[in-house]
Protein backbone atom coordinates (compact mmCIF):
# COMPACT_ATOMS: atom_id res chain seq x y z
CA UNK A 1 0.00 0.00 0.00
CA UNK A 2 1.38 3.41 -1.00
CA UNK A 3 0.39 6.51 0.93
CA UNK A 4 1.01 9.95 -0.55
CA UNK A 5 0.45 13.18 1.34
CA UNK A 6 0.84 16.62 -0.22
CA UNK A 7 0.02 19.85 1.56
CA UNK A 8 0.41 23.41 0.36
CA UNK A 9 -0.01 26.17 2.97
CA UNK A 10 -0.01 29.89 2.33
CA UNK A 11 -0.75 31.98 5.39
CA UNK A 12 -4.15 30.63 6.56
CA UNK A 13 -5.09 28.99 3.23
CA UNK A 14 -4.15 25.37 2.60
CA UNK A 15 -4.75 22.46 0.26
CA UNK A 16 -4.11 18.93 1.49
CA UNK A 17 -4.32 15.80 -0.62
CA UNK A 18 -3.94 12.26 0.74
CA UNK A 19 -3.98 9.22 -1.53
CA UNK A 20 -3.85 5.54 -0.58
CA UNK A 21 -2.90 3.31 -3.50
CA UNK A 22 -2.77 -0.46 -3.64
CA UNK A 23 -0.41 -0.68 -6.61
CA UNK A 24 3.30 -0.05 -6.75
CA UNK A 25 3.73 2.29 -9.73
CA UNK A 26 5.36 5.71 -9.57
CA UNK A 27 2.78 8.47 -10.05
CA UNK A 28 2.10 12.10 -9.26
CA UNK A 29 -0.80 14.10 -7.81
CA UNK A 30 -1.85 17.67 -8.63
CA UNK A 31 -3.12 20.49 -6.41
CA UNK A 32 -3.41 24.07 -7.63
CA UNK A 33 -3.97 27.44 -6.03
CA UNK A 34 -4.35 29.75 -9.05
CA UNK A 35 -3.91 33.04 -7.19
CA UNK A 36 -3.35 34.21 -3.63
CA UNK A 37 -3.57 37.85 -2.56
CA UNK A 38 -2.72 38.78 1.01
CA UNK A 39 -2.90 42.30 2.42
CA UNK A 40 -2.03 43.42 5.93
CA UNK A 41 -2.39 46.96 7.25
CA UNK A 42 -1.51 48.47 10.60
CA UNK A 43 -3.02 51.67 11.90
CA UNK A 44 -1.95 53.92 14.74
CA UNK A 45 -4.02 56.85 15.90
CA UNK A 46 -6.39 56.36 12.97
CA UNK A 47 -3.56 56.63 10.41
CA UNK A 48 -2.05 53.91 8.23
CA UNK A 49 1.52 53.32 9.42
CA UNK A 50 2.38 50.05 7.72
CA UNK A 51 1.08 48.06 4.76
CA UNK A 52 2.14 44.78 3.14
CA UNK A 53 0.77 43.16 -0.02
CA UNK A 54 1.79 39.71 -1.26
CA UNK A 55 0.48 38.31 -4.56
CA UNK A 56 1.31 34.73 -5.59
CA UNK A 57 0.25 33.13 -8.88
CA UNK A 58 -0.12 29.48 -9.81
CA UNK A 59 1.01 27.58 -6.74
CA UNK A 60 1.14 23.96 -7.85
CA UNK A 61 1.81 20.51 -6.41
CA UNK A 62 1.96 17.71 -8.98
CA UNK A 63 1.96 13.93 -8.62
CA UNK A 64 1.17 11.87 -11.82
CA UNK A 65 2.16 8.56 -13.41
CA UNK A 66 5.75 8.30 -14.47
CA UNK A 67 6.56 6.37 -17.61
CA UNK A 68 9.92 5.08 -18.83
CA UNK A 69 11.39 7.05 -21.74
CA UNK A 70 10.16 5.92 -25.16
CA UNK A 71 12.57 4.01 -27.37
CA UNK A 72 14.19 6.16 -30.06
CA UNK A 73 12.05 6.29 -33.22
CA UNK A 74 8.93 4.96 -31.53
CA UNK A 75 5.69 6.89 -31.50
CA UNK A 76 3.54 7.12 -28.37
CA UNK A 77 0.32 5.10 -28.23
CA UNK A 78 -2.84 6.09 -26.47
CA UNK A 79 -5.28 3.34 -25.50
CA UNK A 80 -8.67 4.24 -24.15
CA UNK A 81 -11.18 1.85 -22.63
CA UNK A 82 -14.71 2.97 -21.97
CA UNK A 83 -16.90 1.07 -19.55
Topology:
Elements: E1 2-10, E2 13-21, E3 28-44, E4 47-63
Antiparallel strand pairs: 1-2, 3-4
Shape: elongated
Q: What is the CA-atom radius of gyration, in angstroms?
A: 22 Å
Number of domains: 1
Strand/helix succession: EEEE
The secondary-structure class comes to mainly beta
C-alpha end-to-end distance: 26 Å
Strand order of the largest sheet: 1-2
Contiguous helical run count: 0
Which bin fits the share of residues in helices?
Answer: under 10%
Rounded mean pLDDT is: 76
Which percent band covers the strand fraction?
A: over 45%
β-strand number:
4
Specify the biggest β-sheet. Answer: 2 strands, antiparallel
Poorly predicted parts? none
How does this structure look, described?
The chain is mainly β and 83 residues long. The chain has one domain (2-63). Helices cover 0% and strands 63% of the residues. The chain has no helices and 4 strands. The protein has strands at 2-10, 13-21, 28-44, 47-63. The strands form 2 sheets. The chain has a two-stranded antiparallel sheet. A hairpin with a 2-residue loop joins strand 1 (2-10) and strand 2. The mean pLDDT is 76.
Question: Which characteristics define this entry?
Answer:
83 residues; mainly beta; two-stranded antiparallel sheet; two-stranded antiparallel ribbon; 4 strands; elongated
